[in-house]
Amino acid sequence: MAETYNVDIAPHCPIGPISLAACLQLDFATPNVLIQEQIIGLGHGSKSEFLKYFVDSSPMEAKDGYIELMTKPGLGVEIDEKAVRAASKKINRKRFPEWTHKDGSFAEW
């Protein structure tokens, strides 16, 4: 519907690297995507930690602010299923940062 009215969209993807790969595939096929939100490096530690679920993370590397069209089948990246299985057995105690204003009230990201 946004395309009909010449409105750009900016998809929201704060979930993780595999969902980002899926969102990017939709973006590549959608003519009115302006920008793709992502959280690489925000509250997840290092960039390499975020991308460890891929056999080769180079297709997810931004170059000059852009991620190039992925050409592999499916999500465009090969998932390291062993790493995903190992991570699923760990208890995730990570929390996103809670940002506040100087007066202590909650702030939006």
TrEMBL record:
Sequence ranges assigned to domain Enolase C-terminal in this UniProt record: 1-83
One protein family per Pfam: MR_MLE_C
Protein name, UniProt field: Unannotated protein
Organism listed in the record: freshwater metagenome
